[in-house]
């Protein structure tokens, strides 16, 4: 058995665009996740970053089969997740739990904290022994730093940070091995963010959890992750360990992303060199040919239009990058050039007759 | 003379049968022509209410605004609604956080920009539309001629924010108030918008009041920073002083609790205990005292005054973080 807890191979999640009143016709696809392969090692934190619409959340949901992947394989601890059916899958989910972004929206306002926590236990038949269950609830609440008296209270009685703790407790109570945290701190105030980030770290140390953290805030992701994957328009463009990614970003998009994150230090800010990207993210329903990033890339060449770069291992450090010219950009032999903003038009790139919303297959 | 002089501004929300809530509690600050001033704080600290009060955009019922907002030596709070409308858009522009909800979804973009020019500068529709095209071009919207006829939903988030900036700057106001202008945007788009704002401010000499929760944004943009907590300014300093040598424990804690992209990884983040709701009223001492690491007996009892500090700054603290000794 390898040390990888999760292996995702060439995962694709495509959403059909439906049109028509009586008969649904598929008039195109939104390529939300388009061929992502990655490994999450046991006990590590894998951080997935990217901007809105890059498919990072869909990837996380696809992993739990909350949306059904179109193709590809997911292996969790030797089990092929995609081959599991009905009841098997339901019981399997105990091992992977999710923490959502907005704790107020993901917790039922009419359920007390106790009922929220017990619900998962009931679903997995762990509620029979009442005494053991109560100890379990108390110890879980204790581990996320909430008093036992919280059990009888309702989500609205808590502050944002405490609600996120309830969300984490709800995931923890089943004793999962992997926690998929989708934007766990982005809805919180700065001073509260630090508390939740520290809590996640402490829990990992004491319980040996593996995390897949999905977030748009590169600074937060870099702080908590051992490995970072950068996504752009449905594919993984670069993967490296946290320090390496900051020290030596290889993909042009990663460089731009790193240079765009504001740093709370005026002396650094005044001296920084920025790579300003022009334009917006192209529509994932009509991604550009070849390299997905070429429309905004200041280093793009004609080869980038024709051939889509594979994610390849760059050197011994294990850093992986999906760029034809990573070496040339790194040693400076390829110069930046002007990029003109292309207009991104939701109505134009997608086929003209878009009717109903997106329905996952 | 200062362009904008906010003196002792207070906003109290009062609902029937409920205890009054003081959202802004005696805030004073000044903005010199061409200067960029930041108002920073977490949710509920009163930063947005301050900006709405300055613009006279708070609902007329249910709140009491006291103090003075002197713009060009006229107190905006005493103006009649008609006089205030003449000023808004003409002398003072404003950019809001969410560009989609601040643009009218059923009016073409061109008309929304042109409207300002027609109202304030008496342009004809034709001329105004032509100028609107120039404005959209200036804020970096490609193909402005076609964009003029389009509706807000046809634009991306970054483009909408650019359009909003074009509207705010249409009459070349002397003061621009930006309330979280980049919070709804992705980081690469945020970098575009901040660069645009910086360039426009530099070129036109417009003064900018930047309201944000993001310390990184402030570090790159603002000349002077006011840190707000629970409706009061707790620290004011030039940006270099504030970030190099924060004196108030709240500012200090905030700066320490943000993970930095350029710092070493790992380890625990400094955390401020409790949450924003764990305050005591300012009248009973320092509102931050229950969460403060440096709390002493003097913090509780009476209101802590805002006192002048080194290099033109100000500080509201009885037991400030010791100044770092210059090496």
UniProtKB/TrEMBL annotation, chain A:
<keyword id="KW-0547">Nucleotide-binding</keyword>
<dbReference type="InterPro" id="IPR017871">
    <property type="entry name" value="ABC_transporter-like_CS"/>
</dbReference>
<protein>
    <submittedName>
        <fullName>Oligopeptide/dipeptide ABC transporter ATP-binding protein</fullName>
    </submittedName>
</protein>
<dbReference type="GO" id="GO:0055085">
    <property type="term" value="P:transmembrane transport"/>
</dbReference>
<comment type="similarity">
    <text>Belongs to the ABC transporter superfamily.</text>
</comment>
<dbReference type="GO" id="GO:0016887">
    <property type="term" value="F:ATP hydrolysis activity"/>
</dbReference>
<dbReference type="InterPro" id="IPR013563">
    <property type="entry name" value="Oligopep_ABC_C"/>
</dbReference>
<dbReference type="Pfam" id="PF00005">
    <property type="entry name" value="ABC_tran"/>
</dbReference>
<dbReference type="InterPro" id="IPR050319">
    <property type="entry name" value="ABC_transp_ATP-bind"/>
</dbReference>
<dbReference type="GO" id="GO:0005524">
    <property type="term" value="F:ATP binding"/>
</dbReference>
<dbReference type="InterPro" id="IPR027417">
    <property type="entry name" value="P-loop_NTPase"/>
</dbReference>
<dbReference type="InterPro" id="IPR003439">
    <property type="entry name" value="ABC_transporter-like_ATP-bd"/>
</dbReference>
<dbReference type="Pfam" id="PF08352">
    <property type="entry name" value="oligo_HPY"/>
</dbReference>
<dbReference type="InterPro" id="IPR003593">
    <property type="entry name" value="AAA+_ATPase"/>
</dbReference>
<keyword id="KW-0067">ATP-binding</keyword>
<keyword id="KW-0813">Transport</keyword>
<dbReference type="GO" id="GO:0015833">
    <property type="term" value="P:peptide transport"/>
</dbReference>
<feature type="domain" description="ABC transporter">
    <location>
        <begin position="6"/>
        <end position="258"/>
    </location>
</feature>
UniProtKB/TrEMBL annotation, chain B:
<dbReference type="InterPro" id="IPR003593">
    <property type="entry name" value="AAA+_ATPase"/>
</dbReference>
<dbReference type="GO" id="GO:0016887">
    <property type="term" value="F:ATP hydrolysis activity"/>
</dbReference>
<dbReference type="InterPro" id="IPR013563">
    <property type="entry name" value="Oligopep_ABC_C"/>
</dbReference>
<dbReference type="InterPro" id="IPR017871">
    <property type="entry name" value="ABC_transporter-like_CS"/>
</dbReference>
<dbReference type="InterPro" id="IPR003439">
    <property type="entry name" value="ABC_transporter-like_ATP-bd"/>
</dbReference>
<feature type="domain" description="ABC transporter">
    <location>
        <begin position="6"/>
        <end position="255"/>
    </location>
</feature>
<dbReference type="GO" id="GO:0005524">
    <property type="term" value="F:ATP binding"/>
</dbReference>
<dbReference type="Pfam" id="PF00005">
    <property type="entry name" value="ABC_tran"/>
</dbReference>
<dbReference type="InterPro" id="IPR050388">
    <property type="entry name" value="ABC_Ni/Peptide_Import"/>
</dbReference>
<keyword id="KW-0547">Nucleotide-binding</keyword>
<keyword id="KW-0472">Membrane</keyword>
<comment type="similarity">
    <text>Belongs to the ABC transporter superfamily.</text>
</comment>
<keyword id="KW-0813">Transport</keyword>
<dbReference type="GO" id="GO:0005886">
    <property type="term" value="C:plasma membrane"/>
</dbReference>
<dbReference type="GO" id="GO:0015833">
    <property type="term" value="P:peptide transport"/>
</dbReference>
<protein>
    <submittedName>
        <fullName>Peptide/nickel transport system ATP-binding protein</fullName>
    </submittedName>
</protein>
<keyword id="KW-0067">ATP-binding</keyword>
<keyword id="KW-1003">Cell membrane</keyword>
<dbReference type="Pfam" id="PF08352">
    <property type="entry name" value="oligo_HPY"/>
</dbReference>
<dbReference type="InterPro" id="IPR027417">
    <property type="entry name" value="P-loop_NTPase"/>
</dbReference>
């Amino acid at each position: 058995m390898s040390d990888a807890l999760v292996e995702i191979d060439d995962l694709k999640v495509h959403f059909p665009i439906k049109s028509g009143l009586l008969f649904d016709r598929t008039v195109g696809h939104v390529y939300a996740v388009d061929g992502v392969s990655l490994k999450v090692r046991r006990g590590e934190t894998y951080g997935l970053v990217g901007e809105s619409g890059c498919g990072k959340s869909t990837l996380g949901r696809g992993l739990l089969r909350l949306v059904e992947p179109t193709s590809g394989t997911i292996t969790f601890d030797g089990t092929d997740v995609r081959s599991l059916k009905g009841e098997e899958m339901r019981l399997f989910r105990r091992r992977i739990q999710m923490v959502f972004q907005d704790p107020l929206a993901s917790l039922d306002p009419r359920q007390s904290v106790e009922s929220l926590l017990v619900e998962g236990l009931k679903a997995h038949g762990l509620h029979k022994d009442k005494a053991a269950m109560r100890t379990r609830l108390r110890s879980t609440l204790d581990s996320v730093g909430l008093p036992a008296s919280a059990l009888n209270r309702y989500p609205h009685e808590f502050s944002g940070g405490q609600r996120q703790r309830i969300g984490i407790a709800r995931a923890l109570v089943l004793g999962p091995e992997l926690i998929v945290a989708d934007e766990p701190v982005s809805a919180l105030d700065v001073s509260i963010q630090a508390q939740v980030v520290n809590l996640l770290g402490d829990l990992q140390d004491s319980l040996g959890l593996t995390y897949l953290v999905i977030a748009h805030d590169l600074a937060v992701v870099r702080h908590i992750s051992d490995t970072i994957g950068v996504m752009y328009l449905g594919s993984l463009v670069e993967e490296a360990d946290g320090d390496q990614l900051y020290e030596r970003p290889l993909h042009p998009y990663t460089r731009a992303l790193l240079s765009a994150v504001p740093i709370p230090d005026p002396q650094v800010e005044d001296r920084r060199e920025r790579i300003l990207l022009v334009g917006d993210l192209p529509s994932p329903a009509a991604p550009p040919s070849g390299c997905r990033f070429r429309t905004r890339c200041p280093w793009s060449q004609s080869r980038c239009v024709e051939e889509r770069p594979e994610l390849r291992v760059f050197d011994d450090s294990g850093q992986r990058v999906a760029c034809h010219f990573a070496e040339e950009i790194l040693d400076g032999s390829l110069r930046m050039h002007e990029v003109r903003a292309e207009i991104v038009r939701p109505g134009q790139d997608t086929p003209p007759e878009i009717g109903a919303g997106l329905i996952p297959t | 003379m200062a362009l904008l002089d906010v003196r002792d501004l207070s906003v109290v929300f009062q609902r029937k049968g409920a205890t009054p809530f003081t959202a802004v509690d005696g805030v004073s600050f000044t903005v010199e022509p061409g200067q960029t001033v930041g108002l920073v704080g977490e949710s509920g600290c009163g930063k947005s209410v301050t900006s709405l009060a300055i613009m006279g955009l708070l609902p007329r019922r249910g709140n009491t605004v006291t103090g003075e907002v002197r713009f060009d030596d006229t107190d905006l709070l005493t103006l009649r609604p008609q006089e205030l409308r003449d000023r808004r858009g003409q002398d003072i522009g404003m950019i809001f956080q969410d560009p989609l909800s601040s643009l009218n979804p059923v009016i073409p973009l061109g008309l929304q920009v042109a409207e300002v020019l027609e109202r304030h500068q008496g342009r004809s529709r034709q001329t105004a539309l032509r100028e609107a095209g120039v404005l959209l071009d200036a804020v970096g919207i490609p193909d402005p001629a076609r964009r003029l006829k389009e509706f807000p939903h046809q634009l991306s988030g970054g483009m909408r924010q650019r359009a909003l900036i074009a509207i705010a700057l249409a009459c070349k106001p002397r003061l621009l108030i930006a309330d979280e202008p980049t919070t709804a945007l992705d980081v690469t788009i945020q970098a575009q918008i901040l660069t645009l704002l910086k360039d426009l401010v530099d070129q036109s000499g417009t003064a900018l009041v930047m309201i944000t929760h993001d310390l990184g944004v402030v570090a790159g943009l603002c000349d002077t920073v006011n840190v707000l907590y629970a409706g009061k300014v707790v620290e004011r300093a030039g940006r270099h002083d504030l970030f190099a040598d924060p004196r108030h424990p709240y500012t200090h804690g905030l700066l320490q609790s943000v993970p930095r992209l350029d710092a070493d990884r790992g380890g625990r983040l400094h955390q401020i205990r409790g949450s924003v709701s764990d305050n005591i009223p300012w009248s009973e001492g320092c509102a931050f005292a229950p969460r403060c690491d440096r709390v002493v007996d003097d913090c509780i009892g009476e209101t802590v005054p805002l006192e002048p500090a080194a290099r033109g700054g100000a500080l509201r603290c009885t037991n400030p973080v010791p100044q770092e000794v210059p090496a």
